[in-house]
Amino acid sequence: MGGGHRHPLHWPGNSPGHRLPPQVKIVAALLLVICVVATPRQVFWAFGGYLLVLLVLWRVAGVPVRWFAKRALIELPFVVLAVLMPFVGVGPRVEVLGVPVSVEGALAGWAILAKGTLGVLTSLTLAATTSPTELLVGLRRLHAPAVLTTIATLMLRYAEVIVAEERRMRLARLARGHNPRFLWQVGATARGLGTLFVRAYERGERVHLAMLSRGWTGALPDADDRRTSPRSWCAGLSPVAVTALVWGVALWTS
Amino acid sequence: MTTPMAMHMSDGLLDPATSALFGLVAAAGLTLAVLRARRDLDDRTAPMAGLVAAFVFAAQMLNFPVLPGVSGHLLGGALAALLVGPAVGALCLTIVLVIQALMFADGGLTALGANVTNMALIGTVAGYLVALGLRRFAVRGRAGLAVMAFLAALVNTVAAASGFVVEYGIGGQGGVSLVGVATAILGVHILIGVGEGVITALTVTAVAAVRPDLVHVLRGADRPLQLRPSPVARPEESGA
After folding, report:
1. What whole-number distance in Å separates Cα of residue A253 and Cα of residue A43?
2. Looking at beta carbons, which residues of chain A come within 8 Å of B30?
3. Same domain assignment for residues A56 and A129
4. What's the pLDDT tens digit per position in B153-195?
5. Which residues of A fall within a CB distance of 8 Å from B105?
6. How many domains does chain A have?
């Protein structure tokens, strides 16, 4: 994808974090999140340790902390849920500033908040250092079923086209007096969506014909399938090693 | 545009064992969907499913108000199932969810299996079953089709939400009564489902009006071509 098509969650760069093979980063992110989720929730310091690991990773990748903080707002609905839990929770209650608070609910709320936030930050780290195309290459090298990665490749290639088409149709509707804030105007939006589907489907038929005429046999040609060097695996999994260490100590002390 | 909101389950809501269990459920369901999608689309699978997935992705950007201050976005499960069938629909929804988790941080990586199970598998299949049950009325005319699409989308949303309640019951963080969770989640999702239903009904009828051959549930129900005299052509004929 050329300029102007930059993905909103990708921070282009050339840091060691950006240069790692994508499959290493996907595996590392997944293992990191598994460690976070498997940590007993009452070991509070461990979550601080995980955050520290992420902070070091951001430093290495050269992405400002502010950038992550702003994009982590996506998690807000779950923060609301977590904040509500101590008040609606069950079990024994303690008084905090004169308000009875459920101990069990507070712990559950904390777990959702801490683990959810660390999960979002990990995903954001992956998305910031890896472009969408690289992510798909990574999935393919991890032996994800070819049909899935092929569909995902085509979806990603055309998502922007379809989204841009929707935007043009919405602008055209607005220019003709459409006001989508009124519920009874939902009809125009939905009919636009119907048109969008027909156009997307017909585009799919044309894309298929174009692919056939260029020798499409039902599978993408094999991408560069070099073996990942042990060195990049070591480099990529080093943050996971630290995380796993923190996790082990957390399990042992809890 | 406002800040995009996570609508999919985040990490830490479910314990690791439950996450792994539903990861396996999702993988099994997905295998089935791939096999059936190949039968539906043969070598067209990749481009067609890719474009439909791109459409679902674009449709999910559509927000609509649920309550003051709360907005839901289209899940598109029922819409995809009605238009392209349950197998291709589930496949497209799964890919959208994977892309959202990997590239948009929407939905936790460990919760991906549960999210796929709820929205791509349970929701799509439930919606499609409702549609099959009501197909008799849908082929008769526009109103029947609209009602069918509305109910399919409503059931799709509520079924996906029930999937979450079951998962939370098996291995959630606990702390709150399950009945409370069920009431809150299902309540909100019935409201989202009504919005989803209205949009799905209008969208499906709009597609059926232009390209009825593209609506998967209506396949095999083509009405014979009718020849009707055009009211515009008549005065010219008499004048000539």
Report:
1. 8
2. 148
3. yes
4. 999 999 988 988 888 888 877 667 788 878 888 888 888 888 8
5. 9, 71-72, 74, 120, 123-124, 127
6. 2
A174 lies in which domain range? Answer: 145-213
Residue A128 domain flag: yes
CA distance A89 to chain B (A): 4
Q: What is the DSSP annotation of A152-205?
A: HHHHHHHHHHHHHHHHHHHHHHHHTT--TTSGGGHHHHHHHHHHHHHHHHHHHH
Together in a domain, A53 and A149:
no
The two three-digit tokens of residue B222, written as one number: 């083509």
The pLDDT of residue B215 is above 60: yes
Residue A5 included in any domain: no
| A35 contact B CB<8A | no
Q: Which 24-43 residues of chain B touch chain A by CB within 8 A?
A: 30, 34, 37-38, 43
Classify the complex by whether its ipTM is higher than 0.90, answering yes or no.
Answer: no
Judge if A150 and A99 occupy the same domain: no
* Cα–Cα distance for residue pair A28/A49, rounded to 1 Å: 16
- Do A57 and A172 lie in one domain? The reply is no
Identify the H or E element spanning A238: helix A230-253
CATH code of the domain covering residue B108: 1.10.1760.20
Res. A105: pLDDT tops 90: no
- B75 within a domain of the structure (yes/no): yes
The predicted pLDDT at position B237 comes to 54
Q: Domain residues for B60?
A: 16-221
For chain A, what is the mean pLDDT? 82
Query: Is residue A38 scored above 60 in pLDDT?
Result: yes
pLDDT value, residue B6: 46
In-domain check, residue B231: no
Q: Choose among B5, B38, B203: nearest Cβ to A194.
A: B203
In a domain, A4, yes or no: no
Name, in order, each residue with C-beta under 8 angstroms of A236's C-beta and a sequence gap of 6 or more.
A20, A21, A24, A25, A27, A28
CA–CA min distance A251, chain B (Å): 14
Chain B, window 96-125: residues with a beta carbon less than 8 angstroms from a chain A beta carbon: 96, 98-99, 101-106, 108-111
Is the pLDDT score of B24 beyond 90? yes
pLDDT digits (tens, 9 = 90+) for A9-34: 788 878 888 888 888 999 999 999 99
**Does residue B173 belong to any structural domain of this protein?**
yes
- The whole-number pLDDT of residue B224 equals 66
pLDDT at residue A178 is higher than 60? yes
Distance of alpha carbon B37 from alpha carbon A83, whole angstroms: 43
Q: Is residue B145 part of a domain?
A: yes
Total structural domains within chain B: 1
Kindly state whether residues A149 and A90 are assigned to the same domain.
no
